[in-house]
Amino acid sequence: MSKFLLTTAVLAASAIHSAALEDHHQHSHDQAAPTGQGDWLEPFEHVHFSKSGTPVVHSFGIEPALTGRDFFLSHRYRKGDGTHEHEIEAELEWALTRRLGLIFELPYAYVDEESVGTSEGFGDLAIVPRALVYESERFLLTAQVEVIAPTGDDEIGGETSIAPGFAAWLDLGNWWTLNSQASVEHVFAEDSSEFVFGFGLVKTFGKSGVATHSHSHHSSVGLLNLHAEVAGTVGLNGDEKGRINAEGLLGISYGLSSRLDIRAAYEFPLTSPEDFDHGVVTGIIYHF
Prior knowledge:
By secondary structure, the chain is mainly beta. It has 1 helix and 13 strands. It has a 12-stranded antiparallel β-barrel. The longest helix is centred in the N-terminal third of the chain and has 28 residues, at 2-29. The relative contact order is 0.18.
């Protein structure tokens, strides 16, 4: 499994590098500068399509590489080893400008463990400042820092951590896109660190967007998206050093209206020991 994950990471990195080189070559050939390298205070515009008309779709467990103004509400159910867990998470993505933004995440969990009992409460609040540092027609790259504050109930949360990293979006052609992210998370109380990774492949069906001089403003209504994701962690120190935890996801999302997307997915473990047997995610995305 470790070889599979390493191979996946290398192939994704190679594809991202190739796309960036191709975009740079094409822009140089057309005597056009790379898009938006100095417009940090340019007003926010909501984006559903890239400048080439490719849909920009949110993955389930991977932060998007673009700034936006969206509200996510999701429910996750997981079962495994005598444990039933329900989690409701609210997430707000708020763009300050076209290139600068913030993400706020707050979960509420209910956990029922056999022979132990139940616990419930709010988890820790996550705040993620982020900046779109590179943009072309086929590639987006965002730098971000996730800060988790110990605001949750003792039985559910109570940890402080920081995770600097990157998120990327890549247009693979024919309405295939790849969302990816990588970060290093450090938990202060345990003095532990881990590498966090995620890849989300999306295939979109529906009405084509139209490429214009600026970002396309066509809505996502009627777009049907199929999702396949791999996400996980690799321990970097302590007892967890070198341990890989990974899980997969297969899902579907649909643009119900110009402001509302609905989605659902099935989750499953990829590595052993397994933290859960299976899980189901349902949710909505509201576009401001």
